[in-house]
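Minutes, project huddle
Topic: does the predicted pose make sense with magnesium ion bound?
PN asked that the exact inputs be recorded in the minutes so nobody has to dig through chat later. Recorded below.
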Amino acid sequence: MLHRDFIRDLPQKVGSTVVVRGWIFRRRTAGKLCFIEVRDGSGVVQAVVKKGAVGDAEFEAADKVQLESSVAVTGTVRADPRAPGGVELSVTAFEVVSACIADFPLGKKEHGIGFLMEERHLYLRSRKPTAVLRIRAEVVRALREWLDGHGFTAVDAPIFTPAAAEGTANLFKVDYFGEPAFLSQTGQLYMEAAAQALGKVYCFGPTFRAEKSKTRRHLTEFWMLEPEIAFGDLDEVMGVMEQSVSHAVARVLERCRPELEALGRDLGKLENVKPPFPRVSYDEALKVLEGTPAAIAWGEDFGAPQEDAISARYDRPVLVHRFPMKIKAFYMRPDPARPDVALGCDLIAPDGYGEIIGGGERSSDLAYLEGKIAHEGLPKAAYEWYLDLRRYGACPSAGFGLGLERTVSWICGLDHAREAAAFPRTLNRVYP
Ligand code: 4AD
Ligand code: MG
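Predicted holo structure (tokens), as shared on screen:
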């Protein structure tokens, strides 16, 4: 194994000689001193190369090395209260592992978003994307931690699927050895089967929607976390939504403070995110919207204007429940007290981030589902396995899907959900 000391650990190594392997982040020379900031993924440290302390060739290499070249820097760790991280390196050996073939394409000047997306593979090394990716990893860890700690078993859903679950308009069709198959829009139907085996389950994986939308909330490939609870109801899943999301936000506040600060996130707003979240029915929401520019007629779906107007009334996410059946997916359970509304619920994030979760109760009624599948013109044969779940020990079931990129985008305060993915896929982007 190649020996290396991680920058994160240097404060514990004051006085010793270490080898840092990483990339040139910033560089300036002042006479006989060359100041090089090296980053290695665990942190950034300033390395001071002094003429005479290293060979002339090494000093010249340090003086000339281009930004983002890879290097191995050997030096003594010195405590320096002014340095970020509290330490600095006095360099005793400087080696260029691989010099850039030309100036790094992302220099100091401001670049437009189109260029940054085209150069995403290189832009990832910058402060903002690395902060976002660390927070994303923490959000995933925390959500899994919450579910794992509350009796859920992780089950992976397939990505090639025989049928639609969230409408047929946005399916990605693939040629599966001459037969049509579709990239999964949701793992939910499979989680319903798994919940009948394991009780409480969740899947977490990529999902696909051929969305022709160019909004800041839409990706064509996104990751979804989908818990499903056998014998669960709407009230129980709303509890899981607010608790798991609050736990994730608390973990990010606890463990990713430098990243949140690097992104300029307003921490006070995140600190408000604690259960219980306000609960508002679709009907109540419509009353609130009456007479405002976001007013809609009963039966119309929420768009960004409606979500934003409702969420603006609260200091934390809001749960909107009982949307009209006709705008919801075929599997939703109608409210027995009001069959024109579904026992479903969306979680709407504050500050215009919109719906980050959708979910609710599933119908366990075989005849009802057969009717829905016929009514929506779905190919019944592809759903026989799903209908079997209602033929053999049907039970009430409830769950939800949390869109990871939208959630991370909100927690980080980003402009667009694509910023929350390392390599986002959108209507007009599959490169790099
Ligand atoms: O509301 P949706 O469509 O719900 C489902 O797919 C359910 N089957 C989930 C379940 O109950 N297990 O999608 C759930 C979430 C949305 O709230 C949103 O956060 C995210 O997935 N999402 C998208 N994120 C980015 N780009 C898109 N095109 C998205 N479509 C949905
Ligand atoms: Mg939805």
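Observations noted during the meeting:
- The longest helix spans residues 127-148.
- The two ends are 31 Å apart (CA to CA).
No decisions taken; revisit at the next huddle.
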